[in-house]
Amino acid sequence: VPKAVSDHRALLDDPAIDAIVICSSTDTHARFVEDAAAAGKHIFCEKPIDQDLATIDRALGAVREAGVKLQVGFNRRFDTNFARVRQAVASGEIGEPHLLHIISRDPAPPPLAYIKVSGGIFLDMTIHDFDMAQFLIGDEVDEIHTAAGVMVDPAIGEAGDLDTALITLRFANGVLGVIDNSRRAVYGYDQRAEVLGSKGAVSTANNFPNSAVISGPDAVRRDLPLNFFIERYTESFIAEMNAFIDAVASGGPVPVTGEDARVPVVMAIAARKSHDEHRPVRLCEVA
Amino acid sequence: VPKAVSDHRALLDDPAIDAIVICSSTDTHARFVEDAAAAGKHIFCEKPIDQDLATIDRALGAVREAGVKLQVGFNRRFDTNFARVRQAVASGEIGEPHLLHIISRDPAPPPLAYIKVSGGIFLDMTIHDFDMAQFLIGDEVDEIHTAAGVMVDPAIGEAGDLDTALITLRFANGVLGVIDNSRRAVYGYDQRAEVLGSKGAVSTANNFPNSAVISGPDAVRRDLPLNFFIERYTESFIAEMNAFIDAVASGGPVPVTGEDARVPVVMAIAARKSHDEHRPVRLCEVA
Amino acid sequence: VPKAVSDHRALLDDPAIDAIVICSSTDTHARFVEDAAAAGKHIFCEKPIDQDLATIDRALGAVREAGVKLQVGFNRRFDTNFARVRQAVASGEIGEPHLLHIISRDPAPPPLAYIKVSGGIFLDMTIHDFDMAQFLIGDEVDEIHTAAGVMVDPAIGEAGDLDTALITLRFANGVLGVIDNSRRAVYGYDQRAEVLGSKGAVSTANNFPNSAVISGPDAVRRDLPLNFFIERYTESFIAEMNAFIDAVASGGPVPVTGEDARVPVVMAIAARKSHDEHRPVRLCEVA
Amino acid sequence: VPKAVSDHRALLDDPAIDAIVICSSTDTHARFVEDAAAAGKHIFCEKPIDQDLATIDRALGAVREAGVKLQVGFNRRFDTNFARVRQAVASGEIGEPHLLHIISRDPAPPPLAYIKVSGGIFLDMTIHDFDMAQFLIGDEVDEIHTAAGVMVDPAIGEAGDLDTALITLRFANGVLGVIDNSRRAVYGYDQRAEVLGSKGAVSTANNFPNSAVISGPDAVRRDLPLNFFIERYTESFIAEMNAFIDAVASGGPVPVTGEDARVPVVMAIAARKSHDEHRPVRLCEVA
After folding, report:
1. Nearest-CB residue to D186 (from A101, A174, A199)
2. Residue C3 pLDDT more than 70?
3. CB burial class (10 A; 0-12, 13-18, 19+) of residue D53?
4. I need a labelling partner for D140 at 20 to 30 A (CA). Which of A99, A212, B204, C185 fits?
5. At residue D54, does pLDDT exceed 60?
6. Cβ contact (<8 Å) for B212 and A223?
7. Which chains touch C (3 or more CB pairs under 8 A)?
């Protein structure tokens, strides 16, 4: 049912509408979630619900009270590469997990104006990797240590943010992980994961626009990987939306709940605190 | 405009319809092309137009006379891997082409009943590779030599067909090529190409459902390549149809004409003749 | 025992010497083999024994009569990549073999002066691939079809030779194979093999000086493969000599006999005849 | 000059000997270095010189006083993969380095008896990676944070050691690095490095016994990587010894000095201290 309205309440009042999708700017998410919940609509909301835990908790309370479904847009869980890593861990194919690596680098930093309102690299960029870490290992992170700096653009540092980081995670089950973030990989979007387990390891590579290899007089080369999230994650965006529609239609659970989506925000806050205080920080200190 | 009719003439009589898509069984293609041309409709027709050259020529004559567009479904030209090989040749990136390899293996043979009406492996399966060969090199094949046998299933031989072949091509410009066909690659659909040129080489690999590599105690392994044409060529089917729609909408030329599509049929006939007569056969002998 | 003499007979007369290694120019091989056999020495001789079958047969007769061991230098059988392909075929790992590909390209053509006395591309270059083909499949070739041309350098054609070829092989057991030869691959020495069997396929890649992959703003690239046979086959040269020494020391059979080494010469003659007469040629026509 | 003696002093007294190679057990290294220096011999000593900084410093003092050359056996610098990474950094090929990853996993833990005298994972195993980190980046590490645990074998923990670790490094120039260590990768020796720089990235893969890929009905697979250091680093052991011989013969500097070799010991001590005190530790705290 295609419908355009100037006020979102018009949508919420329409009894023909079962569910709504929120992909507005982050500062409006929580309010829209609350309004939609009050109207009894199921909700798909882009991540994060908010940068503030109290605001998130109020929105999640409204969702619980209304008994509607809320799915948050951590689309990467639906990517075939990351899903295959999760399968290798969950099925026991590689035994008990020991070590996790997530490489997550953007091709170029966003505009400074955006960086200033983004909540910082951990809330804006690493948040996906925090979700991925827990998804891949299937356990909660207990402690975070951040080593970070400004290497890409001094203006990012002047804006109070960081652009390069190695974030060490200690999971409750003892697994150790590291997230590698950079705001600029000149060769394009770099999105990989690797898990070492007691019975083997699984690792993924980047996705490329084609498989052609050119052997010339100077080098053997191939075209750059897919440049950014629109190209790289196209199929996962479709898959996550299909999963939401299935959950609404079938009455089953959504694959990424509001509670799932709250944790990466806690992790982002802990990561920044670790950087500021120059020490490992436990999630229970900030949650 | 979705519309279902029991007789295709009802579609042809509908003035609201500009173009039709023919993907019925091969023996109906030529007749439908002629009817559609007579009705002034633009036509997208699955390959081949027919197994018989005279029938093809009558259909192409009808298309020419009616002044409508005809695009034939050689979808692989729209695959990003093969398109990249073509680009490397056409742009001069690898210099003048010298040698061409096409590997084209099905995961399993079709049912015997189908094989008996398929026109044989060269008209049914290799026809795509014949088109690809000319597309990649950008020149016409002059001579064909076939070395073939029955290795996959004796019943295919009893039905008068072959299931395994190496077909050598000599192009008018001197380039040499080989097509490798098998009706059964147990690891899945194998679709690769390689060109050696004076300034370099280009080669493509198969497409996989994910990039995950699993290192276990016995081997380093990955999941099998995409199993068959539906999965492997999904995007190319969409791209070829978009190209047809663009051509109809813009009035521009179609990317694969009826004349383009006639040549692979000639090549298939020559390939079988080479096998039967145990000698190289020039296309001018059968065209 | 290091020893330098001006006349090879001085070596042959030395009773302290058990075996000799012949790596002089090809036209001297057969004579040295005969002399060494007459002196009762075991012999390692670089390939080929001669370009002429009658001369080879006379040398082989002398070896048989003297009861000495003769190993011929088809070193590539000792390369770990090709040995792994052979193992996959011989062990049944890929089932019954159906199709074979050998890619064998030099980085650059030899000097014209050498080409003029080389016996032609099939005796000089393809001879290694002819041996490899039989080694990998473990069966004899019955028929050869050559499609060849001059694409690298017209002067090679003027010297009566060819520089680019696709040679189709039909084995006695029905297997079909193709050898791809070029005198110039600008990216370096290209030495690969692939076998499709009823239960799988095996393929090898080129060897590189390191495994480093560089991702830059324009491409993902790696250094060129090892440039030529000295670097590429170092370990195989050592391994074949060790195998010869073992055979002499243990009294066991040599891994590549004079009879093994005769066949590729027959194949080279058939390949040229196929080119000259523009038809498939059976080995029994020339053997 | 092959020579076997029961007392090393007999070697040191021999005026025909210019240089000696120490590859005895670690607890004898420092004493032998001092004796050899006193005898005026050039010295190649396996790493580490000792586990104790004061003992190392006394040995280095003896070397300086005697004016002899001392090269320490950090052989991995001579490996072609790691050397290529260093070249990419040193030449500016990837711009200014930002992030470093070293993956270094053994195929299986050593015997417990060895672990008990090894000095712990950081002095025994990570010491190579500490050296590699400084070699690749070309700068000194300023601070270390260790996240480690016992996941492979509880007996290792009972012996007071660790078997799995992620060690974060902050270099003086701001570069951030992480070393991934495990005492057991069931697929074999895992030795990789990766550097992200401002103009690109470089990464290496493991070395394999052959390049063969087997495509079967269940997976596409290859043989396991080279299993352990003898196979994996054969060429680097030869290259480092040649470099030492060259330095002695030419009178030039050795490529890995005693001072170079002291730093990884400091790093190992800091890494353990970080684990014990659960905080980042600066090298200046322990040096």
Report:
1. A199
2. no
3. middle
4. A99
5. yes
6. no
7. A, B, D
Q: Which residues of chain D does C210 touch, with a Cβ-Cβ cutoff of 8 Å?
A: 80-81, 83-84, 204
Q: Looking at chain D, which residue has its C-alpha nearest residue B108?
A: D217
Give the nearest partner residue to B214 out of A80, A202, A223, using CB atoms: A202
Cβ-nearest to A88 among B207, B214, B217:
B214
- Minimal CA separation from D220 to chain B, in Å: 5
Phi and psi at residue D54, in whole multiples of 5°? -65, -40
Q: Which DSSP letter does residue D223 get?
A: P
Mean of all residue pLDDT scores within chain A: 95
What CATH architecture is D8-68?
Answer: 3-Layer(aba) Sandwich (3.40)
Q: What is the average pLDDT across A81-108?
A: 98
Residues in B 187-206 with any Cβ partner in D closer than 8 A = 187
How high is the pLDDT of residue D6? 65
Q: Using one digit for the tens of pLDDT, what is the confidence trace for A3-41?
A: 666 677 777 888 878 888 998 888 899 999 999 999 999
pLDDT at B268 over 80: yes
Separation of alpha carbons C193 and B20, rounded Å: 46
The tens digit of pLDDT for each residue in C133-149 reads 999 999 999 999 999 99
Residue C223 sits at the chain A interface (C-beta within 8 Å): yes
> How far B12 CA sits from the closest chain A CA (Å)?
32
Predicted pLDDT at A3: 60
- CB–CB of C203 and D209 under 8 A? no
CB neighbour list of residue D101: distance below 8 Å, 6 or more residues apart:
A101, A180, D177, D178, D180, D192, D193, D194, D195, D203
Q: How many contacts (CB atoms, under 8 Å) link B and C? A: 95
Map residue C227 onto helix, strand or coil. Answer: coil
> Residue B243 and residue B237: Cα distance in Å, rounded?
10
Cα C243 from chain centre? 17
pLDDT interval class at B23 (50, 70, 90)? confident
Chain B contact for C9 (CB, 8 A cutoff): no
ipTM: 0.94
Q: Which residues of A38-63 are buried (b: 16+ CB within 10 A; e: fewer)?
A: ebebbbbbbbbbbbeeebbebbbebb
Q: In this complex, which of A99, A164, A186 lies closest to D166 when CB atoms are compared?
A: A99
Between chains, do D212 and C94 touch, taking CB under 8 Å as contact?
A: no
pLDDT tens profile B182-196: 999 999 999 999 999
Within 8 A of C170 by CB-CB distance, chain B residues are: 147
Q: For B168-184, how does the pLDDT look when each residue is reduced to its tens digit (9 = 90+)?
A: 999 999 999 999 999 99
Answer yes or no: do D215 and C206 touch at CB < 8 A.
Answer: no
Residue A84 at interface with chain D, using a CB cutoff of 8 Å: no
- In chain C, domain spans: 8-68, 76-232+258-285
Q: How many CB atoms lie within 10 A of CB D216?
A: 21
pLDDT at residue C14 in the model: 81
So what's the architecture of B76-232+258-285 in CATH?
2-Layer Sandwich (3.30)
Neighbour tally for B167: CB within 10 Å: 30
Radius of gyration of the CA atoms of chain A, in A: 20
Query: Which tokens hold the place of B103?
Result: 């590997």
> Is D214 close to C94, i.e. CB distance below 8 A?
yes
Test A83 with B216 for CB contact under 8 angstroms. Answer: no
Tokens of A215: 């052997």
Which fold, D75-229+258-285?
Answer: Dihydrodipicolinate Reductase; domain 2 (3.30.360)
> Does the distance separating the beta carbons of B200 and A215 come in below 8 Å?
yes
Inter-residue contact C219 to C207 (CB < 8 Å): no
We find that the CATH architecture of domain A76-232+259-285 is: 2-Layer Sandwich (3.30)
**Are A186 and C222 a contacting pair at CB < 8 A?**
no
Distance CA A266, CA A284 (A): 9
Strand runs labelled E in D29-172? 42-45, 70-72, 97-105, 141-149, 164-171
